[in-house]
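note to self — DONT lose this again. spent like an hour looking for the file last time. sequence + predicted structure for the chain T wanted, 273 res
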Amino acid sequence: MFDLSQPLGVCTWTFGPQPLERTAATLRTLGYDGVELHGDLDAFTPSRARAILDGEGLRLFSLTPANVDPAHPDSAIRQAAVDYYMKLVDFAAEAGGIVSVHGHVGRVAPVASMAAERSLLVQSVRRIAGHAEQSGVDLVFEVLNRYEAHLINTCGEALALMRDIGSPRLKVLLDAYHMNIEESDPVRAVHDAGNDLGLFHVADSNRDAIGRGHTDFRAIFAALNDTGYAGPVIVECTPPGPNPFTPVKDPDSVAVLVGQLRACRAALTGTAA
């Protein structure tokens, strides 16, 4: 339907707790180019992750973090988040991939105040970015909707955060699903990001496969091409049902997800499902 030229990947967290070997084999069968790897640092070493992905002919595009809180007013919680991200940057330095940063998923209100926590977020991400600069690793800050995070919900807010941090290694991650909720004009948001767009996620307006919601992907992909975005397009669908933070909701969830991913690849590449 769209015949995208950008490489296509999938977020591995959407498969739930199944082993990476099984997920990688499934994605190879489905014809994807690579993955956004969930940053579970206890699950595998960088060399093991690369061996699994290389064995299936998949690229490691990016790393999505565990649920830590770099903006929490409790210094111990905040330091634990920074320490985790430092290790994730080290993982990427060895294994490859862009490191995605975002706030604590599910915390939708400040513990202190919005202004105080935004300032703490800037301080934390600036420290992480400094380590990334020394390690030669690129970062993106992911823009989440208001039902998942409270500080950075729009492209404009992410660009302002990026300017405040001032790192040449930091760009913005936009997600069509989150933009559907927060952006008055998702196409304008893509244009506003321009060269500062470092990664792009897709799912339809209901987080289902492309074509099963009401997002105008034709206009969004045209905007991506207009801005010269050549990075990967990462699919982040989840099976329907309650609790959007839990991908595996019942015994059929993975099979439903595979159907979604097959439909997304067909839509994105203009091929038959």
